[in-house]
Amino acid sequence: MEIRGVRESEIAEMIDLQCQVFRPDGHERYRQYVRTDPSYRYDQSRVLLVNGEIVSTLRVWEREMRIGSVPVPMGGIGGVGTHPEHQGAGYATALMKDTIDYMRTVGYDVGVLFAAIPCAFYRKLGWASVPLAGFRVTRRRTIGLEPTEWHLEPFDEGRDLELSIALYDKHNAEQSGSLVRVRSYWESGPARLREIMPTVVARHGDRFGGYLNFQVGEKSVNILEVAYDRTQPKALTALVSYLLEVCEREEVEELHGDIPHRHPMVDLLIEGTAGDTFLAGNSAMMLYAANLFSLFQRLLPELQARFDAANQNFKPVSVCFVVNDQEVGLRLLKNGTLQTFDSAEEAIRLTLPGHLFWRALLGESSWTQLEPTLHQQGIAVEPEIAALLSILFPQREVIFWGPDHY
């Protein structure tokens, strides 16, 4: 058995395996994954060979994900597949374990995947689920929202791409869970295959108010992404009004999306449809800390900013977080400075289940909200330490936009 990056001469063999496991007609799609992704390197296609034959493979997508508002180097794991005749032999497990070492070697602090099989397989390997919130709105009828000065037009790449990129960056600058999108990413073949380009944009003269990306199915609409200038909230109203017109024309009965129900767009949808709203979402998103110490070093400035903003006094303390087989320390000095340190010194040790660690780090739940569950599992700290951790790990919305899935 040999595990390594694919060689150029093996690309066709690897794609044949992917088609056999996932999409019989996917040859051109998988070729584009390699040829039209400017961030691609051959070592990102991990392969496991038995007697010189590729029997298992996966892809590591080079990305940056915001944790809080901090961009973190990320390896996105996708296309984990094994030849049907070799399934059950542990090859996918071996490949996944090797990929963690690979991600550490190339400098990814975090691994992220979206499980297409039961999460238990990945959970056994140390991966942890983070629930992503979604919504579903049933449409009873279309009620016109208030008129606005914004005009809706189909997205035109030559006219609107630069403005859409700039708006995405501004809109998501502090959006935990969102990806950093460089221009080459927007224009890449894989992103286009996943329909990253907006459907419609809101304009008024030379002003660009927002965009909406959605897909119309049979009696339903899937909202993939929305962004708008938050100083121009009526632009969002105009985008939703346009969508409601589409729903009326196409006799849509339901609208849904992997977007938290607290998003202002959802309230407008409820108002405009006289519909009922239902909470939705899933736990297919799974994370792994490839380099826990490096991750905390990157997050340290934001943790410091949260502490400073709270303007509270605490005694000096050192806390060591233990996740899977890694440890990282966080030290609060007398002068209010936070520092990271390795696990050698004495500290309060917190061994955290992976899913609770990631919920706190991303902000899906605050430390305060997680405390009852932690207590149930025998994990408790002194009230002053809990108060400090509640400042460092507040709740915030987490969104991983639909077109960024891989």
Structure description:
With 406 residues, the protein is an alpha+beta fold. It folds into 3 domains: 2-130, Gcn5-related N-acetyltransferase (GNAT) (Aminopeptidase); 135-281, 3-Layer(aba) Sandwich (Aminopeptidase), CATH 3.40.630; 292-392, 2-Layer Sandwich (Nonspecific Lipid-transfer Protein, Chain A). 35% of the residues lie in helices and 29% in strands. The protein has helices at residues 11-21, 27-35, 91-106, 120-123, 157-171, 183-187, 189-193, 233-250, 264-273, 292-310, 354-362, 367-376, 383-392; strands at residues 2-5, 45-50, 53-67, 70-82, 110-114, 128-129, 132-138, 151-154, 200-204, 207-216, 220-228, 254-257, 277-282, 285-289, 317-323, 326-332, 338-341, 348-351. The strands form 3 sheets. A 7-stranded mixed β-sheet has the order 1-2-3-4-5-14-6, with helices on both faces. A 7-stranded mixed β-sheet has the order 8-9-10-11-12-7-13, sandwiched between helices. Strands 17-16-15-18 form a 4-stranded mixed β-sheet, with helices on one face. Strand 9 (200-204) and strand 10 (207-216) form a beta hairpin. Helix 8 (233-250) packs across helix 9 (264-273). The mean pLDDT is 97.
Oligomer: single chain
CATH class value of the largest domain: Alpha Beta
The biggest beta sheet is recorded as: 7 strands, mixed
Outline type: globular
How many strand segments? 18
CATH architecture of the largest domain: 3-Layer(aba) Sandwich
How many separate domains? 3
Poorly predicted regions are none
Summing up helix and strand content along with how strands pair, one would put the structural category as: alpha+beta
Return the average pLDDT rounded to an integer.
97
CATH topology of the largest domain: Aminopeptidase
Q: Helix share of residues?
A: 25-40%
CATH-defined superfamily of the largest domain: Gcn5-related N-acetyltransferase (GNAT)
Distance from N terminus to C terminus (CA atoms, Å) equals: 27 Å
